[in-house]
Design a protein that fits this description.
49% of the residues lie in helices and 14% in strands. It has 221 residues and is an alpha/beta fold.
Length: 221
Amino acid sequence: MTTRSSTDGSGDVAAPTIRIMTVDDHPVYRDGLAALLALHRDLELVAEAGNGASAVESYRTHRPDVTLMDLSMPVMGGADAIAAIIAENPAARIIALTTFQGDADIHRALEAGARGYLIKDALRHEIADAIRAVHRDGWALPNAVAQRLAKFSQHQELTERELDVLKLMARGLRNREIATEIGRSEATVKVHVLHVIQKLGVADRTEAVVVGLKRGIIHLQ
């Protein structure tokens, strides 16, 4: 952590500067974050990365106080990058910043070790306040995000095979085609589909896909 000198002529010692790394595969969005951070005297951008693997390397080099981490990126996703950084430095402070609003995405980020979760269209003061809160060893979970996380615990998690089936359902594949894709019988696929529908609490496979996308359990590529 560094300290910026006071420029108001008062002689007061400036507040400690929070050193920040931003991680996002879209340069335009990183530029937007850089512009936002520049508006706050106590926030300093010290590093940027375009994917999770680069983020892990940049973290080792720069040791930022707080990291803003996108979840959906090439090479290595945000959740995996968060887990890798936390494994090396359990005290790392990371905020997941993403366009997704699904409760499954929130759960994955927090399970990986994130201390906060913000949607990318959050107001600029919300992002700055979240950074400060996490830097103080607090948490950054807006009410809407916390509510979605609470609802997540009410649902049964899908198994890895059921998740594969749901992803193929989202691609429009029928049971016979799904059976070919995963190397199982059509009867077995029907059982998986039934379990998916029951666990998601929906009426049919179409609604299962809609709910899966809404909750962030699956994403369209």
